Amino acid sequence: MTTAPTTSPDSLLPPVGNRLRDSLASGRFAVTAELTPPRGTDLTRLKKGAALLHDYVDAANLTDNPSAVVRLASWAASAAVIAEDLEPICQLQCRDRNRIALQSDLLGLASIGIPNVLLLTGDHTRFGDHPEAKDVFDLDSTTLVWVASTLRDTGELMSGAKLQGSPRLLIGAVENPSAPPLEFRAQRLAKKVAAGAEFIQTQYIFDLDNFRHFVERAGELGALDHCKLLAGLGPIRSPRALERLSHSIPGVVVSDDVAARFKGVKDEDFAEVGLNLCAEMVAELQNIPGVSGVHLMAFAWEESVPEILTRAGVAARQRRN
Asked: For 4, which of 166, 192, 212, 302 is 20 to 30 Å away at the CA?
């Protein structure tokens, strides 16, 4: 007797459904977090991070050579966390690929069972570990969102050629509410939504007053009628982290109120204050109309994510059998 295959013939990986899509559609406060692929092939830390996040997030971003630093490919890291029963959001950026490679990658991601993508323009190579590398930037992130939605919804390449099978992907994009000029940030979000973005993750937020204005403006433009907004947060772990967030990441603004929370705090107490602050912000964001969830960025501190969510009163995720 022939044993039935355990995987779909249309996928090289076990099916994971789409937990993120289901959570967003249900109206439940969604949670995503971030995992950074290793600088090499050792998956030990990545799998440990996936285990820490498993019961607390709907899906996890696998970053694509962030800050133009070479790491394991996002699609390979996504495949690794699927094997750990964690749903991935595979990042794909324009810096390193032309339109041929980007379309090919989108098809490839869908074909191996990766259900979600986050599409970005990407950081310039001069900021990374290979500053002599050539940037591509054939497309920008908004155009790439349109390309992905066109592949999925019309079954056509940019050339007009017909596909034999369309990529069934949940399409995400990013926005930075705090980057100048502030008056154009909601409009940029609306353009990405018009191009086909179904969810938006933001850069770090440390100024809730500005963020509320951004959300209100996006709502007035009708953008939030067609996509889900996940607010980007992260715990401040040390004085060095506070300094970096305050002065080294373009578009990130640490408000005076937040900075004051750390004034006079001993180095050994920074992490505790940072956890409490992040949890308070998660709790407050749950009460802002138009916010569908949070995206937690805790680089190399994945164990903080369950603690933050627990302190904020966000329920653990219920898994399918």
From this structure: 166
Give the span between the Cα atoms of 169 and 131, in whole angstroms. 32
Q: What is the pLDDT of residue 269?
A: 95
Question: Domain spans of the chain?
Answer: 19-312
Strands 170-175, 88-93: parallel, antiparallel or unpaired by DSSP? unpaired
Taking the C-alpha atoms of residue 168 and residue 3, their distance in angstroms, rounded to an integer, is 28
| HSE of 276, CA atoms in CB hemisphere, 13 A | 8
Picking from 70, 90, 69, the residue whose alpha carbon sits closest to that of residue 78 is 90
| Share in percent of the chain as helix, strand, coil (round to 5) | 40, 15, 45
Express each pLDDT in 217-265 by its tens digit: 999 999 999 999 999 999 999 999 999 898 888 788 899 999 999 999 9
**Options 3.40.630.30, 2.130.10.10, 1.10.10.60, 3.20.20.220; which CATH number does 19-312 get?**
3.20.20.220
Distance CA 287, CA 292 (A): 10
68 within 8 A of 124, measured Cβ to Cβ = yes
| pLDDT tens, residue by residue, 131-142 | 999 999 999 999
Which of 201, 148, 146 lies closest to 173, judged by CA?
201
Contact 319, 53 (CB under 8 A): no
Q: How far is CA 108 from CA 59, 125, 146, in A?
A: 19, 25, 17
Global pTM exceeds 0.90: yes
**Amino acid identity, position 287:** N
With CA atoms as reference, report the closest residue to 201 among 25, 20, 32, 27. 32
- Which residues, at least 6 apart from 163, have a Cβ–Cβ distance to it below 8 Å? 107, 151, 155, 156, 157
